[in-house]
């Protein structure tokens, strides 16, 4: 199998983080690039990141190397994704808010960029894993 | 004080198995050639991750120390020391959005 891959890296770890709307605009640009591609081809956009996670810092769980300091925020993000409430999420996802969700909380920006590419759609499937501070989700359209 | 050197040691622990092994066998000798300050060297050898965090070492990198159980650090000891340090917003403070 030989699949071309274009990696896009967004800094979600070391402040200053890029603004949520800037990441969303990046996703919109990716979508336009895909739609303008001259060949008729199937494209998958894959994003990865936590909503709330601390690795190695003071908010890890006792006896562990990581922790979920803000499960309420993770639940809120999940609800926003389920309802396709993108604008609300963009308003809420300030740099300060993301870092309150853990030193890896900025990884939500990867999801937000992906939402920019997807547009205002509800996911076909979403599996919450709030205990781990994240979820698995799939959007699909033709 | 160049906390960068501490971060670099932690980075190398993950990426260089021979360096990791040397540190496990003889931490003082191995760290003696690293460009660390005296206090950084002492804190590392004693596994004082909470104090290193407060000096600005990156927690992501520090966590490699307990991953490989160096300097007497198990996950339990690491978590107790790091949880006692700082107020919880990470070594790198927010600078606003880019």
Explain what this protein looks like in three dimensions.
The complex is a heterodimer of chains A (142) and B (98). A two-stranded antiparallel sheet of chain A has the order 1-2. Helix content of chain A is 37%, strand content 10%. The model of chain A has no long low-confidence stretch (mean pLDDT 94). With 142 residues, chain A is α+β, with helices and mostly antiparallel strands. With 98 residues, chain B is an all-alpha fold. Chain B has helices at 3-15, 17-25, 27-32, 38-45, 49-54, 59-67, 75-83. In chain B, helix 1 crosses helix 2 and helix 1 (3-15) packs across helix 6. The radius of gyration of chain B is 13 Å and the shape is globular. Residues 88-98 of chain B have low confidence and may be disordered. The chains are: A alpha+beta (142), B mainly alpha (98). The interface between A and B is medium-sized, with 27 and 31 residues.
